[in-house]
Protein backbone atom coordinates (compact mmCIF):
# COMPACT_ATOMS: atom_id res chain seq x y z
CA UNK A 1 0.00 0.00 0.00
CA UNK A 2 1.33 3.40 -0.96
CA UNK A 3 1.79 6.24 1.49
CA UNK A 4 -0.64 9.18 1.11
CA UNK A 5 0.43 11.71 -1.49
CA UNK A 6 -1.74 14.55 -0.18
CA UNK A 7 -2.54 15.83 3.30
CA UNK A 8 -6.19 14.98 2.77
CA UNK A 9 -5.50 11.35 1.81
CA UNK A 10 -6.11 8.62 4.36
CA UNK A 11 -3.02 7.22 6.04
CA UNK A 12 -2.19 3.54 5.71
CA UNK A 13 -2.90 3.14 9.43
CA UNK A 14 -6.38 4.65 9.06
CA UNK A 15 -7.13 2.40 6.08
CA UNK A 16 -6.12 -0.66 8.06
CA UNK A 17 -8.26 0.40 11.02
CA UNK A 18 -11.27 0.89 8.76
CA UNK A 19 -10.81 -2.61 7.29
CA UNK A 20 -10.29 -4.15 10.73
CA UNK A 21 -13.50 -2.50 11.91
CA UNK A 22 -15.39 -4.16 9.07
CA UNK A 23 -13.79 -7.58 9.57
CA UNK A 24 -14.48 -7.47 13.31
CA UNK A 25 -18.07 -6.25 13.26
CA UNK A 26 -19.53 -7.25 9.91
CA UNK A 27 -21.32 -3.91 10.01
CA UNK A 28 -21.73 -2.43 6.58
CA UNK A 29 -19.89 0.50 5.33
CA UNK A 30 -22.03 3.46 6.39
CA UNK A 31 -21.70 2.87 10.17
CA UNK A 32 -17.96 2.31 9.77
CA UNK A 33 -17.52 5.36 7.59
CA UNK A 34 -19.36 7.52 10.08
CA UNK A 35 -16.94 6.89 12.96
CA UNK A 36 -16.58 10.29 14.61
CA UNK A 37 -12.78 10.34 14.51
CA UNK A 38 -12.69 10.24 10.70
CA UNK A 39 -15.86 10.71 8.70
CA UNK A 40 -15.24 8.74 5.51
CA UNK A 41 -17.60 8.47 2.52
CA UNK A 42 -19.09 5.02 1.99
CA UNK A 43 -17.50 4.60 -1.44
CA UNK A 44 -14.10 5.37 0.12
CA UNK A 45 -14.66 2.71 2.77
CA UNK A 46 -15.45 0.19 0.02
CA UNK A 47 -12.26 1.08 -1.85
CA UNK A 48 -10.19 0.91 1.34
CA UNK A 49 -11.58 -2.52 2.22
CA UNK A 50 -10.59 -3.76 -1.24
CA UNK A 51 -7.05 -2.39 -0.88
CA UNK A 52 -6.42 -3.88 2.57
CA UNK A 53 -7.99 -7.21 1.65
CA UNK A 54 -5.91 -7.42 -1.51
CA UNK A 55 -2.80 -6.61 0.50
CA UNK A 56 -3.49 -9.37 3.02
CA UNK A 57 -3.99 -11.84 0.17
CA UNK A 58 -0.52 -11.29 -1.28
CA UNK A 59 1.27 -14.65 -1.64
CA UNK A 60 4.13 -13.66 0.66
CA UNK A 61 1.69 -12.88 3.48
CA UNK A 62 -0.39 -16.02 2.95
CA UNK A 63 2.70 -18.23 2.94
CA UNK A 64 4.05 -16.49 6.05
CA UNK A 65 0.94 -16.84 8.21
CA UNK A 66 -0.88 -19.90 6.80
CA UNK A 67 1.65 -22.71 6.87
CA UNK A 68 0.97 -26.41 6.40
CA UNK A 69 3.89 -28.39 7.91
CA UNK A 70 6.60 -28.37 5.25
CA UNK A 71 9.05 -31.02 6.50
CA UNK A 72 9.36 -34.01 8.80
CA UNK A 73 10.43 -31.91 11.79
CA UNK A 74 7.38 -29.63 11.50
CA UNK A 75 5.10 -32.65 11.08
CA UNK A 76 6.56 -34.30 14.18
CA UNK A 77 6.03 -31.11 16.18
CA UNK A 78 2.36 -30.95 15.12
CA UNK A 79 1.81 -34.63 15.87
CA UNK A 80 3.46 -34.37 19.28
CA UNK A 81 1.34 -31.34 20.17
CA UNK A 82 -1.87 -33.21 19.33
CA UNK A 83 -0.71 -36.25 21.29
CA UNK A 84 0.22 -34.21 24.36
CA UNK A 85 -3.10 -32.34 24.36
CA UNK A 86 -5.53 -35.06 23.30
CA UNK A 87 -3.75 -38.43 23.53
CA UNK A 88 -4.32 -39.20 19.83
CA UNK A 89 -1.20 -40.34 17.96
CA UNK A 90 -0.36 -39.50 14.35
CA UNK A 91 -2.65 -36.45 14.02
CA UNK A 92 -1.30 -33.75 11.73
CA UNK A 93 -4.45 -31.63 11.79
CA UNK A 94 -8.25 -31.54 11.92
CA UNK A 95 -10.38 -30.75 8.87
CA UNK A 96 -13.88 -29.33 8.49
CA UNK A 97 -15.85 -26.85 6.42
CA UNK A 98 -17.93 -23.85 7.44
CA UNK A 99 -20.42 -21.76 5.47
CA UNK A 100 -19.92 -18.03 5.02
CA UNK A 101 -23.04 -16.33 3.65
CA UNK A 102 -22.83 -14.07 0.59
CA UNK A 103 -25.39 -12.17 -1.46
CA UNK A 104 -26.75 -13.91 -4.52
CA UNK A 105 -23.91 -13.89 -7.06
CA UNK A 106 -24.43 -12.55 -10.57
CA UNK A 107 -22.94 -15.68 -12.22
CA UNK A 108 -23.24 -19.43 -11.54
CA UNK A 109 -25.77 -18.76 -8.79
CA UNK A 110 -26.62 -22.45 -8.41
CA UNK A 111 -23.06 -23.28 -7.24
CA UNK A 112 -23.51 -21.10 -4.17
CA UNK A 113 -27.02 -22.04 -3.03
CA UNK A 114 -26.67 -24.37 -0.05
CA UNK A 115 -29.14 -26.81 1.50
CA UNK A 116 -30.02 -24.28 4.21
CA UNK A 117 -31.47 -22.12 1.42
CA UNK A 118 -29.05 -19.23 1.32
CA UNK A 119 -26.04 -18.39 -0.84
CA UNK A 120 -22.65 -19.11 0.66
CA UNK A 121 -19.04 -20.12 0.31
CA UNK A 122 -18.24 -23.54 1.77
CA UNK A 123 -14.82 -22.86 3.28
CA UNK A 124 -12.50 -25.78 3.98
CA UNK A 125 -10.20 -25.28 6.98
CA UNK A 126 -7.48 -27.41 8.57
CA UNK A 127 -6.13 -26.47 11.99
CA UNK A 128 -3.43 -27.65 14.37
CA UNK A 129 -3.79 -28.47 18.06
CA UNK A 130 -3.37 -24.80 19.05
CA UNK A 131 -6.23 -23.56 16.84
CA UNK A 132 -3.90 -22.06 14.22
CA UNK A 133 -5.32 -22.50 10.72
CA UNK A 134 -2.74 -24.28 8.57
CA UNK A 135 -4.82 -24.49 5.36
CA UNK A 136 -7.80 -22.59 3.94
CA UNK A 137 -9.74 -23.03 0.70
CA UNK A 138 -12.56 -20.53 0.17
CA UNK A 139 -12.96 -21.14 -3.57
CA UNK A 140 -16.06 -23.39 -3.48
CA UNK A 141 -19.71 -22.46 -3.33
CA UNK A 142 -22.18 -23.61 -0.73
CA UNK A 143 -23.63 -26.28 -3.04
CA UNK A 144 -20.33 -28.24 -2.85
CA UNK A 145 -20.11 -30.99 -0.25
CA UNK A 146 -17.21 -31.08 2.22
CA UNK A 147 -15.94 -34.40 0.83
CA UNK A 148 -16.04 -33.08 -2.76
CA UNK A 149 -13.93 -30.06 -1.82
CA UNK A 150 -11.36 -32.30 -0.12
CA UNK A 151 -11.27 -34.75 -3.03
CA UNK A 152 -10.22 -31.91 -5.35
CA UNK A 153 -7.73 -30.27 -2.99
CA UNK A 154 -3.96 -30.60 -3.65
CA UNK A 155 -3.32 -31.52 0.00
CA UNK A 156 -5.20 -34.78 -0.56
CA UNK A 157 -2.46 -36.03 -2.91
CA UNK A 158 0.18 -34.71 -0.52
CA UNK A 159 -1.33 -36.63 2.39
CA UNK A 160 -1.55 -39.76 0.24
CA UNK A 161 2.18 -39.50 -0.48
CA UNK A 162 3.12 -38.83 3.15
CA UNK A 163 1.04 -41.71 4.47
CA UNK A 164 2.91 -44.27 2.36
CA UNK A 165 5.93 -43.85 4.66
CA UNK A 166 4.52 -42.22 7.81
CA UNK A 167 1.73 -43.09 10.26
CA UNK A 168 0.07 -39.74 9.77
CA UNK A 169 -3.50 -38.57 9.26
CA UNK A 170 -6.06 -35.84 9.52
CA UNK A 171 -9.19 -36.13 11.66
CA UNK A 172 -12.52 -35.50 9.93
CA UNK A 173 -16.17 -36.08 10.72
CA UNK A 174 -18.23 -38.88 9.21
CA UNK A 175 -18.99 -36.80 6.14
CA UNK A 176 -15.44 -37.47 4.92
CA UNK A 177 -14.31 -40.77 3.36
CA UNK A 178 -12.26 -43.03 5.63
CA UNK A 179 -8.72 -43.31 4.24
CA UNK A 180 -5.34 -44.30 5.63
CA UNK A 181 -4.53 -40.56 5.88
CA UNK A 182 -8.01 -39.41 7.07
CA UNK A 183 -9.52 -40.96 10.19
CA UNK A 184 -13.27 -40.73 10.78
CA UNK A 185 -15.38 -41.66 13.84
CA UNK A 186 -17.44 -44.84 14.26
CA UNK A 187 -20.79 -43.29 15.03
CA UNK A 188 -22.62 -46.56 15.76
CA UNK A 189 -19.92 -48.10 18.00
CA UNK A 190 -21.41 -50.13 20.89
CA UNK A 191 -20.72 -48.61 24.33
CA UNK A 192 -17.69 -49.76 26.35
CA UNK A 193 -15.90 -51.19 23.32
CA UNK A 194 -12.50 -50.36 21.78
CA UNK A 195 -14.39 -48.71 18.88
CA UNK A 196 -16.37 -46.49 21.26
CA UNK A 197 -13.18 -45.51 23.10
CA UNK A 198 -11.49 -44.62 19.81
CA UNK A 199 -14.51 -42.54 18.74
CA UNK A 200 -14.56 -40.67 22.03
CA UNK A 201 -10.85 -39.84 21.64
CA UNK A 202 -11.43 -38.87 18.00
CA UNK A 203 -14.36 -36.57 18.81
CA UNK A 204 -12.52 -34.81 21.63
CA UNK A 205 -9.46 -34.19 19.47
CA UNK A 206 -11.43 -33.21 16.35
CA UNK A 207 -13.44 -30.70 18.37
CA UNK A 208 -10.46 -28.35 18.07
CA UNK A 209 -11.48 -27.48 14.50
CA UNK A 210 -15.00 -26.56 15.63
CA UNK A 211 -13.54 -24.40 18.39
CA UNK A 212 -11.15 -22.82 15.87
CA UNK A 213 -14.01 -21.88 13.55
CA UNK A 214 -16.00 -20.49 16.48
CA UNK A 215 -13.02 -18.46 17.68
CA UNK A 216 -12.30 -17.00 14.25
CA UNK A 217 -15.94 -16.03 13.72
CA UNK A 218 -16.10 -14.47 17.18
CA UNK A 219 -13.07 -12.34 16.29
CA UNK A 220 -14.19 -11.53 12.75
CA UNK A 221 -17.96 -11.38 12.80
CA UNK A 222 -18.26 -10.42 9.16
CA UNK A 223 -17.99 -14.22 8.63
CA UNK A 224 -21.12 -15.03 10.65
CA UNK A 225 -23.87 -16.40 8.43
CA UNK A 226 -26.48 -13.86 9.50
CA UNK A 227 -24.14 -10.93 8.70
CA UNK A 228 -23.90 -11.86 4.95
CA UNK A 229 -20.96 -10.60 2.89
CA UNK A 230 -22.31 -8.25 0.21
CA UNK A 231 -19.63 -9.10 -2.32
CA UNK A 232 -19.11 -11.35 -5.32
CA UNK A 233 -17.58 -14.76 -4.47
CA UNK A 234 -13.98 -13.86 -5.35
CA UNK A 235 -13.94 -10.81 -3.07
CA UNK A 236 -15.79 -12.72 -0.33
CA UNK A 237 -13.17 -15.48 -0.53
CA UNK A 238 -10.40 -12.89 -0.25
CA UNK A 239 -12.07 -11.49 2.89
CA UNK A 240 -12.16 -15.02 4.36
CA UNK A 241 -8.45 -15.47 3.61
CA UNK A 242 -7.67 -12.10 5.21
CA UNK A 243 -9.56 -13.07 8.36
CA UNK A 244 -7.69 -16.39 8.54
CA UNK A 245 -4.35 -14.57 8.40
CA UNK A 246 -5.47 -12.11 11.08
CA UNK A 247 -6.80 -14.97 13.22
CA UNK A 248 -3.38 -16.66 13.15
CA UNK A 249 -1.65 -13.37 14.00
CA UNK A 250 -4.02 -12.92 16.95
CA UNK A 251 -3.33 -16.46 18.15
CA UNK A 252 0.43 -15.96 18.12
CA UNK A 253 0.02 -12.69 20.03
CA UNK A 254 -2.43 -14.25 22.53
CA UNK A 255 -5.03 -11.61 21.72
CA UNK A 256 -8.17 -12.15 23.77
CA UNK A 257 -11.56 -12.40 22.10
CA UNK A 258 -15.08 -11.62 23.22
CA UNK A 259 -17.12 -14.79 22.86
CA UNK A 260 -20.32 -14.85 20.84
CA UNK A 261 -23.50 -14.27 22.79
CA UNK A 262 -25.46 -17.53 23.28
CA UNK A 263 -28.17 -16.42 20.86
CA UNK A 264 -25.55 -15.54 18.22
CA UNK A 265 -23.81 -18.89 18.65
CA UNK A 266 -27.14 -20.74 18.40
CA UNK A 267 -28.13 -18.82 15.29
CA UNK A 268 -24.81 -19.63 13.63
CA UNK A 269 -25.17 -23.30 14.55
CA UNK A 270 -28.67 -23.50 13.10
CA UNK A 271 -27.60 -21.90 9.81
CA UNK A 272 -24.63 -24.21 9.25
CA UNK A 273 -25.12 -27.44 7.29
CA UNK A 274 -24.63 -30.31 9.70
CA UNK A 275 -23.16 -33.60 8.52
CA UNK A 276 -25.53 -36.55 8.59
CA UNK A 277 -23.71 -39.27 10.57
CA UNK A 278 -22.61 -42.12 8.34
CA UNK A 279 -23.19 -45.53 9.94
CA UNK A 280 -20.05 -47.63 10.01
CA UNK A 281 -21.94 -50.70 8.82
CA UNK A 282 -22.49 -48.85 5.54
CA UNK A 283 -18.75 -48.08 5.35
CA UNK A 284 -17.81 -51.73 5.81
CA UNK A 285 -20.31 -52.90 3.19
CA UNK A 286 -18.50 -50.84 0.51
CA UNK A 287 -15.00 -51.97 1.46
CA UNK A 288 -14.94 -54.97 -0.89
CA UNK A 289 -15.23 -52.70 -3.93
CA UNK A 290 -12.93 -49.94 -2.68
CA UNK A 291 -9.21 -50.65 -2.02
CA UNK A 292 -8.62 -47.18 -0.52
CA UNK A 293 -11.45 -47.74 1.94
CA UNK A 294 -10.07 -51.17 2.88
CA UNK A 295 -6.70 -49.56 3.59
CA UNK A 296 -8.41 -46.93 5.72
CA UNK A 297 -10.28 -49.58 7.72
CA UNK A 298 -7.04 -51.49 8.34
CA UNK A 299 -5.19 -48.37 9.55
CA UNK A 300 -8.12 -47.32 11.73
CA UNK A 301 -8.41 -50.81 13.26
CA UNK A 302 -4.70 -50.72 14.11
CA UNK A 303 -5.18 -47.30 15.72
CA UNK A 304 -8.19 -48.60 17.69
CA UNK A 305 -6.12 -51.52 19.01
CA UNK A 306 -3.24 -49.20 19.89
CA UNK A 307 -5.47 -46.81 21.83
CA UNK A 308 -7.30 -49.62 23.63
CA UNK A 309 -4.04 -51.32 24.59
CA UNK A 310 -2.53 -48.07 25.91
CA UNK A 311 -5.74 -47.40 27.87
CA UNK A 312 -5.60 -50.85 29.44
CA UNK A 313 -1.94 -50.37 30.31
CA UNK A 314 -2.67 -47.14 32.21
UniProtKB/TrEMBL annotation:
<dbReference type="Pfam" id="PF13359">
    <property type="entry name" value="DDE_Tnp_4"/>
</dbReference>
<dbReference type="GO" id="GO:0046872">
    <property type="term" value="F:metal ion binding"/>
</dbReference>
<dbReference type="InterPro" id="IPR027806">
    <property type="entry name" value="HARBI1_dom"/>
</dbReference>
<dbReference type="GO" id="GO:0016787">
    <property type="term" value="F:hydrolase activity"/>
</dbReference>
<feature type="domain" description="DDE Tnp4">
    <location>
        <begin position="95"/>
        <end position="248"/>
    </location>
</feature>
<dbReference type="InterPro" id="IPR045249">
    <property type="entry name" value="HARBI1-like"/>
</dbReference>
<keyword id="KW-0539">Nucleus</keyword>
<keyword id="KW-0540">Nuclease</keyword>
<comment type="similarity">
    <text>Belongs to the HARBI1 family.</text>
</comment>
<protein>
    <recommendedName>
        <fullName>DDE Tnp4 domain-containing protein</fullName>
    </recommendedName>
</protein>
<keyword id="KW-0479">Metal-binding</keyword>
<keyword id="KW-0378">Hydrolase</keyword>
<dbReference type="GO" id="GO:0005634">
    <property type="term" value="C:nucleus"/>
</dbReference>
<dbReference type="GO" id="GO:0004518">
    <property type="term" value="F:nuclease activity"/>
</dbReference>
Amino acid sequence: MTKPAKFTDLSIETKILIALSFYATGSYQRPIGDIAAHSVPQQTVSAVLGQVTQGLNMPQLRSKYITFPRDAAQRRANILRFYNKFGMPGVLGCIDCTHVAIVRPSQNEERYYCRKQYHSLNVQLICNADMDIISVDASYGGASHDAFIWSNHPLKAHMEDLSTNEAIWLLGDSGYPLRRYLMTPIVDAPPNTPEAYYTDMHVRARNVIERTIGLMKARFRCLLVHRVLHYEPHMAASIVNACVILHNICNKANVSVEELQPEEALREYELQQLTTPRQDSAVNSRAAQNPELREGITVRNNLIDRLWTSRSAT
